């Protein structure tokens, strides 16, 4: 296997792992937020705001990881 093929394989694996991690993180975040809202419905607005900020950070990290993987595959 040539080095270019290994680079594509590494980029694909890295991108896949980044997406799996982001999906698991957002799923866990949403589940915990729903539990919190169910226990304290009066603080739903605060929990939703914090959940959206954390979800944005997780998605940003996943997007950053994908960009790095694609850049490494291009070299």
Could you please describe the fold and organization of this structure?
The model has no long low-confidence stretch (mean pLDDT 91). The two termini are 16 Å apart. It is elongated and about 60 Å long. It contains two helices and no strands. It has helices at 3-39, 44-74. With 75 residues, it is mainly α. 91% of the residues lie in helices and 0% in strands. Helix 1 (3-39) runs antiparallel to helix 2 (44-74).
Task: Sum up the structure in keywords.
75 residues
In summary, what is this structure?
This protein is 91% helix and 0% strand. The chain is mainly alpha-helical.
The percent range for helix content is over 70%
What does the radius of gyration come to?
17 Å
Shape: elongated
| Weakly predicted, low-confidence segments | none
The H-and-E topology, N to C, reads as: HH
| Number of DSSP strand runs | 0
Please identify the oligomeric state: single chain
Report the average pLDDT across residues. Answer: 91
* Derived structural class: mainly alpha
Strand content: under 5%
Layout of helices and strands, plus pairs?
Blueprint (H helix, E strand, L loop, with lengths): L2 H37 L4 H31 L1
Helix pairs in contact: 1-2
